[in-house]
Predict the 3D structure of the following.
Amino acid sequence: MPDRHAIDLTVNGEPHHIEVESRRLLVDALRRDLALTGTHVGCETGYCGACTVILDGAPVKSCMVLAVQADGSEVETVEGLAPDDETLHPVQEGFHQRHGLQCGFCTPGMLMTAVALLRDDPAPDREAIRHAIDGNLCRCTGYQNIIAAVEWAAATMRGDEPPPPEWQGV
């Protein structure tokens, strides 16, 4: 029988005590042990970023972190973004307003990466946004609408007027 370890995590503000195998990945602990399936499993090699969560304030690819390494940590997942069932987080609203998603597979990782970026830099330029999301793979959008969505969210979170969509007036 594989070694098992008791770990404590605070996920989206809620404390959890779970037992995991030594080799259990954080993404699998979130999905299987805590039933938080918003964090997607993509490549399982750290390449695609679909599994990005915020671990102790920093975006990480949860397929590259063992659950036991996160013992005692705070984890934020896409399920914890919206303040309630009626209101989207500004980054989620930005993706809606600027059509920043298509199939949606990369979206949770993109959202968490954008949230972490905007906490560190409330007024990123396009180059900073591109740099932040360069570890997240999207096969559908071409990234322009994702960048526009993050710009929209940044402006809204600062209390500024969001920039008009690039396609407006075309």
